[in-house]
Amino acid sequence: MSRFTANQWQRYQRHIQLDAFGVAGQLRLRQARVLVVGVGGLGCPVAQYLAAAGVGHLTLVDGDEVSRSNLHRQVLFTEADIGLGKAAVAAARLRAMNPELELRVVPEALSIDNAESLIEGCDLVLDCTDNFSARYLINDCCINLRRPWLFASVVRFSGQLALFTPGKACFRCLYPRAPEGVEDCNAAGVLSTLPGMVGLLQANEALKFLAGLECPLDGRLMLVEGLDLQMRHLALQPAPECVCRQGRAPILADDDTGAFTCDTSAAEAGELSPVEFEARRSGDRGLLLDVRSQQEHEAFNLGGDCLPLDEQFIDRARTGLPEKNSPCVLYCQSGRRSARAAQLLRDAGFTRVETLAGGIARWLEVRPDQPV
């Protein structure tokens, strides 16, 4: 009796013909259960290649909706998908690619409430997120459940990858605490092809790991530079006091990890909704500042002056802004840079600082019928 149907043989024969892969490797892929956390710039190519290669079961976790700003790099989506849930749209594309694929859609962010149950039922976790808090959560759950996971990140022209397996160095050995001031793609931008490059490498390692082949990234960090096409490998060593040495990690949303979700849509103290922002802007009440780069400001802005958030930000603010009790409204692309800038101004004694919640991205989604 054949181990594959005629359709399966036609689809996977190039794998099966590989001496190092063969029937055993393809059968292992078919039996594998993979959790993909995030279906964005990395998750799209990762999910496509795993589905096409014959990984039997994929779980897609993503609570975001498709936006126009995603389309230059998130290749599973089109203009017609804007406003729809990423996980559901991606699942439909993958089913069309490989009808035999078993897919589970989780249209919500990875959180303390769902992480352990999702990770427990899989053979490999692929981190395709864009924030450190989710990576710490994945790392700690994988330590506790003894599950392997593949980390990847991209920003600007650079990427990183690493495979973390039980008994070796973990993500907290590499980053004991989340680095301060690290920008993501929303704030810093990313070359459209870079997530595809890094996602392809991540999928490559996933397929080898699942098929039982040797994985050079096990216990090593790979640095990818998109500009000069340089790739470097760094060996990782378990940190003496790391939780991975103890075999058990506390799952806590504390100062070490931050909140395990990254929702910038809900307004906090000192934040203005798009409607409130319009009232400030049209009423000419206070100073309006764009804290993005001059280049971003010139390409598109909501008015006001440009005061980039960089090392000279506070010095320029002290000399260029009016009295410290004068009202000031800040905005950026996603609300993150403006939040940091607002805190710097408050720490410097400015008392009436507000920000546009969710930044330009949020304003473009829900703005009133107002000209820019």
Structural class: alpha/beta
Strand content: 15-25%
Assembly type of the chains comes to single chain
Based on CA inertia axes, which overall geometry fits? elongated
Radius of gyration: 23 Å
| Low-confidence region ranges | 254-268
CATH homologous superfamily grouping of the largest domain: NAD(P)-binding Rossmann-like Domain
CATH C-level category of the largest domain: Alpha Beta
Structural description of this entry:
The chain has 372 residues and is an alpha/beta fold. The protein has two domains: 32-246, Rossmann fold (3-Layer(aba) Sandwich), CATH 3.40.50; 271-366, Oxidized Rhodanese, domain 1, CATH 3.40.250. The protein has 15 helices and 13 strands. The protein has helices at residues 6-16, 22-31, 43-53, 86-97, 115-120, 132-145, 171-174, 185-188, 193-211, 243-246, 274-282, 294-299, 313-320, 336-347, 359-366; strands at 33-37, 57-61, 102-106, 124-127, 149-155, 158-164, 220-225, 231-235, 271-272, 287-290, 305-306, 328-331, 353-356. The strands form two sheets. It has an eight-stranded mixed sheet with strand order 3-2-1-4-5-6-7-8, with helices on both faces. Strands 9-13-12-10-11 form a five-stranded parallel sheet. Helix 3 runs parallel beside helix 4 and helix 3 (43-53) packs parallel to helix 9 (193-211). The longest helix has 19 residues, at 193-211. The radius of gyration is 23 Å and the shape is elongated. Mean pLDDT is 87; it is low at 254-268.
